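Why does residue order matter? Because the sequence determines the fold. Keep that principle in mind as you read this record.
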Amino acid sequence: MYAKYIKRILDFVLSLCALIVLSPLLLILIILGAVFMGGNPFFTQQRPGKDEKIFKLIKFRTMDNRKDKNGNLLPDDVRLNKYGRILRSTSLDELPELVNILVGDMAIVGPRPQLVRDMVFMTDEQRKRHTVRQGLTGLAQVNGRNAIKWEDKLSYDLKYIENITFFGDVKIILKTVVNVFKRDGISEEGMATAADLGDYLLSEGKVSKAEYDQKQREAVELLRI
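Structure:
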């Protein structure tokens, strides 16, 4: 009853209230983002949502567009400037996702929406995480976030969808608030951003280079549809 009907109603009401209450902060972050990022403060990216339907995730940009002399973007750790690091460490970059929740692309609690190029490397069992709306926070996020292995992250996602309850969601939200203040698990150790699933599997020898290249092509095709 809760997962099928009440959860979506609560997501809509709470995201709308949050957008109204946080509107002054959002306006300030939009202005600061435009200044420190040299233009558009928003970052959008196509992600697989419920039933693997592709939607545009909205975040505040944390990396600028600095390029080398050949016009190629500089590495992530270089483009992640001081302002971007503050946004990430406080999770303020996630606030625009309230709009995704409001329109029904996402939920407040659920498996985090990964990249399309991550999804194609998941097993059929792991892809069951897309049978529900993806969340602003989730069970994996309160159990290590980006600091845990991909297998553990996806295992937590599957564990969550097996038993979605109101009190379970409340517990995850409260734990998320605590983790935000503690700034736990923001990224993998020694990395500006978390490694893609395909890159991780290739580095661990769990997929061949041929399989890796094939899956990457599959992801590109999905994004073209």
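The CA atoms of residues 15 and 98 lie 5 Å apart.
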